[in-house]
Amino acid sequence: MNRVTCLLLVLVSMVHWTARVAQAQFGLEGPPEGSRLVRIEASFATNAIVPGKTALLGVHFRIAPKWHIYWSNPGYSGSETRIDLELPDGFKAGPMVWARPVVHATEWETTFGYDQETMLFIPVTAPAIIKEAEIRIGVKAEWLACDQICLMGSGSTSIELPVAKAGEPVVSLKDDPKSAFAKGLACVPVPFQKTTGTIARLEMADGGMALEVTGPTGGAEKIVFVPDFTPGVTSLGGVMTPATIDGDRYRILVPLGIKPDNALGRPLEVAGVVLFGNNRQDPAVSIRMPIRP
Amino acid sequence: MLRRNTLLACLGLVAAAGLVAVATAMPVTPAAPLTAAAAKIGEKAPAFKLKDLEGKERSLSDFKGKIVVIEWFSSKCPWSGSKSRNSVHSTGQVAKLLTNLKKADKDVVYLAIDSTARGMTMDAVVAADKKAVESLKIKNPVLVDFDGKVGKMYGAKTTPHMFVIDGEGVLRYSGAFSDRADKNYVLDAVTAIKNGSTVSPTETRPYGCGVKYSGR
């Protein structure tokens, strides 16, 4: 066996090995099927349900290599990931809390979503009185997984939790920074009102309304605004808007198209996230502001 | 012995390469946003002439005076022409829409256009579409936009992506097939046009697979 043959064997085996590892992990021995491309697991913010209190339920998505699923605004194409909960009587849930998306840009399109893994959250509010000692929450998720092709997938799981007695202390997963829950929560964008130095405001620019966001770069070199889905309000700046950086501050100006007839009965608002880098753990700031026509 | 040592070294390299490959993350780089020069609501819908699956040419002008509904279609997409529990065809949503559209306007025209051709030949696109039409019992004509020019003129992003054009050739609705529940925006738009009332909404966010154009 000469060196060239050896090198070829290394390369071929490398590709084959990577594919085999992915297949073994996600059970892709047969043709790809959307439900086998993503694994879900549910966890709860606390080790017990506290009557009358709201806490987050997290759904951990593990995604097969090369494939991605979508954020609330998929971008140029795609379909958002959905979670439905089956709750005991008297419980309420929602709205969904999204982790920051990653930008998936190809020669043809730019979309927003998640690869490798992510955790999405839903606040669950328990009724003031719970008779049962333990409750079960069913979780159903549905996704569009895309690589070169797109496949619909779904999965279900459930979580059983004891009900805390009055005055009984509960343990919070958020307090354990090594937990998947805390790591997932760290990927949720911070509302701009809770950051230091970020200013978001609506202004008139070139005869129309625009969203202006300014703030500290935090050392990030690439900063973009990605609009969320807001019926009746569209970003005229393209699928995402890059920031201009001046020293240690950035500025983003997003011209807005406002058509109240297209609001589908919802209040007009502008929303989106400012992404400081394109890794899952990179910081992100969320913007959500009402618009009065 | 030398050969055996080379082989062992090689296998060691294979193992190491495999581990490195597993540990390497897929890099993703942001690119410039895609901006399509799309047809606009309230303006003349772009004219087109395309062949259907039998090779017959059909143009928008053939339907002058009639309301035309266009569905962007792909035989490969589970929201569209690929059999799945979400497909607007295999779940019977298009058949139901066609029935309701005919009740609203007996002359309405419903066309599907397939602009997904990346990595495919024209013959392969036609063959895949014919297979989907047969298996999903699709009744409406399917036109093939192999070079994607028509899709880009309309700004078709997803399959399905719906467009409604009135009898004057003006684009009146662009967006989703429905709210993914009971409300069908296409039926609402056609009904409003037929009744002479205002179309609302005129634009919604389409959902589905991205249109895989053959090139840009």
Topology summary:
The complex is a heterodimer of chains A (about 290) and B (about 220).
Chain A: H1 3-26, E1 38-44, E2 54-63, E3 68-75, E4 82-86, E5 92-93, E6 102-105, E7 110-115, E8 117-125, E9 134-146, E10 150-162, H2 180-185, E11 190-191, E12 199-205, E13 208-216, E14 223-227, E15 233-235, E16 241-242, E17 244-246, E18 249-258, E19 269-276, E20 284-290
Parallel strand pairs in A: 11-20
Antiparallel strand pairs in A: 1-2, 2-8, 3-7, 4-9, 5-8, 6-7, 9-10, 12-13, 13-18, 14-16, 14-19, 15-18, 17-18, 19-20
Chain B: H1 2-23, E1 49-52, E2 57-59, E3 68-72, H2 93-104, E4 109-114, H3 122-136, E5 142-144, H4 149-154, E6 158-159, E7 162-165, E8 171-175, H5 185-195, E9 209-210
Parallel strand pairs in B: 3-4, 4-5
Antiparallel strand pairs in B: 1-2, 1-5, 3-7, 6-9, 7-8
Helix pairs in contact in B: 2-5
Question: Average pLDDT value of chain B?
Answer: 84
Our Rg estimate of chain B from Cα atoms comes to: 22 Å
Order of helices and strands of chain B: HEEEHEHEHEEEHE
What is the C-level CATH assignment of the largest domain in chain A? Answer: Mainly Beta
Could you say what the CATH architecture of the largest domain in chain A is?
Sandwich
Tell me the domain tally of chain B.
1
What is the fourth-level CATH superfamily of the largest domain in chain A? Answer: Immunoglobulins
In helices, the fraction of residues of chain B equals: 25-40%
CATH superfamily of chain B: Glutaredoxin
Structural domain tally of chain A: 2
Quaternary assembly: heterodimer
CATH topology of chain B: Glutaredoxin
Number of helices of chain A: 2
C-alpha geometry of chain B: globular
Strands side by side in the biggest sheet of chain B: 2-1-5-4-3-7-8
Question: If you had to describe this structure to a student in words, what would you say it looks like?
Answer:
The complex is a heterodimer of chains A (293) and B (216). Chain A is mainly beta. Chain A has 2 domains: 31-185, Immunoglobulins (Immunoglobulin-like, Sandwich), CATH 2.60.40.10; 190-290, Immunoglobulin-like (Sandwich). Chain A has helices at 3-26, 180-185; strands spanning 38-44, 54-63, 68-75, 82-86, 92-93, 102-105, 110-115, 117-125, 134-146, 150-162, 190-191, 199-205, 208-216, 223-227, 233-235, 241-242, 244-246, 249-258, 269-276, 284-290. Chain A has a 5-stranded mixed sheet with strand order 11-20-19-14-16, with no helix packed on it. In chain A, strands 12, 13, 15, 17 and 18 form a 5-stranded antiparallel sheet that branches. The N and C termini of chain A lie far apart (75 Å). Mean pLDDT of chain A is 89; it is low at 12-31. With 216 residues, chain B is α+β, with helices and mostly antiparallel strands. Chain B has one domain: Glutaredoxin. Chain B has helices spanning 2-23, 93-104, 122-136, 149-154, 185-195; strands at 49-52, 57-59, 68-72, 109-114, 142-144, 158-159, 162-165, 171-175, 209-210. Chain B has a 7-stranded mixed sheet, covered by helices on one side. Chain B has a two-stranded antiparallel ribbon with strand order 6-9. In chain B, strand 7 and strand 8 form a beta hairpin. Chain B starts with a helix and ends in a 6-residue tail after the last strand. In chain B, 42% of the residues are buried. The model of chain B is unreliable at 1-36 (pLDDT under 50). At the A-B interface, helix 1, strand 6, strand 7 and strand 10 of A face helix 1 and strand 9 of B.
